């Protein structure tokens, strides 16, 4: 079957075997391929595109166990399932329109009785695949991230090809009601078998059209409907989706308007009692009401006023309730759209409380089970990010000497002797059996560098100069292959990592403090690594880490190339970042795309935050506001991992944090984790590799958090941008109020900050570094 744009093949078993854009130079299959599953020993063939699960009056039925009837011609296929003479499920794939695929799903009650559909999930198994292929081009050109915007009447989903350049696939609901999108992860991880890369896998997406969960399931998510549907005698329920190629984020929303959907823009992160702006393009739908739903169980509802200008509407309100807000838009024709935004306390308060919690609750002290450590204990250097966060807060905010001295004691008495045999920086300890990780040393070097920023009146155990020397020694071990005897050590020393975030600070300080030998050697190694990455940029090899495709690889690479001034390389790898950061009507689905740590589409605090920071560095190098916007969308999602005022997830105590949030609902591997925050150790009870990675399922959920907030504080966390575009104003990392001919720019940056203007003439700085939260901008100047 084909039309002008698309070619589709339906397998005799009823699932979609392939969906290809005819003019695609890579001939990417946009659905998960059963042949690939067989080649790589995955057994999830029951989850291919068009398969489904349904529960009728409590009885579960799986399409994989049934034989459908298929009729087709050159442009249309009809797949029919008869279920126990009770229900008929029909899928129609129609290519009659030259530019799109029309997909109709219908449920017909064949009985004279009312039927309850407790659950109806249809597999929308788009090509979200991390291929087991060292030729990274396959993962870049033939795999897609999937970004859902779930709305009762106007769900839209963009499957974004990971190269961000060769075309995407938009999916738009035009009839029926979509409740949610769930995911199921299938994976293969050989980390402990000394194989590299060691991780591959895929996510299978499922449209939830009824229910989605077991009857007795409960969680705190009140935003998304979990209810069954009732089909009356002889009634037919119909859902309709349009699938079209899209070129970009802008084209995705333009195509939404073309199929009759409204579009909404909103501020993902809001501060309590500060203005929040939403704009709605009705596209023929007349807006009649706007409601904010918030609070525990969504019990706080507020009618919001709106202003109309032709087919466009604007809502301005100052939220007074903390936590997630569902803003619903009711239209005169009975349809409804919605967005989900977050309302937080000022970010400096969140960071201050987090640091206080680390100091008071996580520090073990001299008499702890592991003396001087901060829990949770881990061999991985990522676990030291919380120590760096304590130091960074004390450098930028109010100084608490006790907090600094706790970290100093840990660095001297716990970190150094643990990671280095007898504390010798040239003798790393084999903490992983018979090997060590070079990546650990970049976190340790950063910790020592931050300690060196304090004056000797604050430090107790060594001078700031001594800690700078330590930082230089450990960083040299991290990047100099000649200091390693093993092949693994030499190879890892030449890999990029999070050190791109602070290397310029280190080099500047080494030079100014007369450590010229270290400066020259480290600078030369830095130039070599980044030049090689730039020279080899079209091969994208830095996108491979222990994962066959990884934003922990291409994110730092894009950031490093930006820092080193390699603009072409930054632009090449930057495209992968733009494809990696979601856009959605729910702020929690705008995170950098990642799945391993949650076994679902997820927010990952550390790697999401590092990706956001890298994207900001690309913005600074290229001055392309698409990167600024993407970086901020990602940052708003990352802050959710630290938000103790959430009312739709398991509650966190003040100052606590959780490293992951599963965007999927339901999480089909672990339904209890659906739309919830947790740490990866929760999978310990599932056995397998997780039983080796963690000591129990009860480890605190924040083991690898902290470094990403330091990156935020060093980057976009110090900037607020006023943007003038298409005769309208907006703010990134803040908000605003118009006061006559002036705009009061209100910054959300937590500590020191700068105010900037972006308009048709370019970018300019409005203020020097300041601690003020506001800047008054004169429109006429």
Describe the structure in your own words.
The protein has 781 residues and is an alpha+beta fold. It folds into four domains: 251 residues, Distorted Sandwich (Beta-galactosidase, Chain A, domain 5), CATH 2.70.98; 80 residues, Immunoglobulin-like, CATH 2.60.40.10; 178 residues, no CATH class; 61 residues, no CATH class. 27% of the residues lie in helices and 28% in strands. It is built from 17 helices and 36 strands. The strands form eight sheets. Strands 5-6-7-8-17-13-12-11 form an eight-stranded antiparallel beta sheet. The chain is globular, with a radius of gyration of 26 Å. The termini are far apart.
- Identify the strand order in the major beta sheet: 5-6-7-8-17-13-12-11
The SS-based structural class is: alpha+beta
Question: Main sheet?
Answer: 8 strands, antiparallel
Gross geometry = globular
Percent range of helical residues:
25-40%
Number of strands: 36
| CATH architecture term of the largest domain | Distorted Sandwich
**Quaternary structure state of the chains depicted:** single chain
